[in-house]
Design brief:
13% strand; 68% helix; Arc Repressor Mutant, subunit A
Length: 113
Amino acid sequence: MVNNQKSVTAIFSALADPTRRRILLRLSKSGEGPVAALAKPFRVSPPAISRHLRVLEKARLIDRRREGRVHVIRARTAGLKPAQDWMANFAAGWAFSFDTLDELLRKEKKNEA
């Protein structure tokens, strides 16, 4: 459970930055690409892009491989799963709470009538 919480925290932290979200969006459209091509549309320095990629890699949202001197980045399809599972559990708890509240309000309304 603790390890999963660390994973979810890393994912949400990585997704908190708009540049990283745009990098993931580009990867979702292209599948994969070299770092230089991914960095091209962003007005940030190469070291800044590298830092963004390290954050995404630490959150396990991307994979990196080397082809000679070129680093190729690919989005991990399963990378968002821990966060999706967390949100699903959270939403289920809310739905249960709202269902319980709705039932309580119906009973009160019935008792008033």
